[in-house]
Write the structure tokens for this entry.
Amino acid sequence: KRELEQKRRLQHFLADLALLGSLQGFKYFQPWLRGKEELLLTVVNEDLLLPASPSEKEMAIPEVNCTLFLVAGYVKYGRPYAWIRSNHERLVNIGGIDSLVKDTPMKLKSITDWIRVWDVVSELVSLCTVPSPSNPFALDLRYVKSLPLTDRFLVTGALLNFLEMYIVYGNRDELHYDK
């Protein structure tokens, strides 16, 4: 019974991961879906705007002002994990053992508690972005306004759907809006 519950939770996590990975237009992070179990997450280190949608080649190459994370829910391990993929010096200093940092999953409260993917994103944004934003899911309205009208409607609808899910299923004590 416990194993079935764990599989169910992982399936919810992977569904959230796929949804988040299909979205663009956040101010403090950019998600890039990499298969059904992996999400590359570029998080802004300083409160500046991310560049407009990068080309396919640049997707996984973080800027100097960003930190790249891999968030994954591998069926093989039965639970979610997160790894630092770039700019780890800002968060972890272990003196020149780069591969150790990249191969060791991060110890995050959101991973330990294993709640929802947005909790992981919120924790990573709060950890990286200086100053820490009051709303890690703030939208980059300049990006949205720069899109052609049809794309703007689709992106806005997708973002609203995600934010509605976040409000309905998120932790009421940590929601980032005025109640």
Notes: The CA atoms of residues 71 and 139 lie 21 Å apart. The radius of gyration is 16 Å.
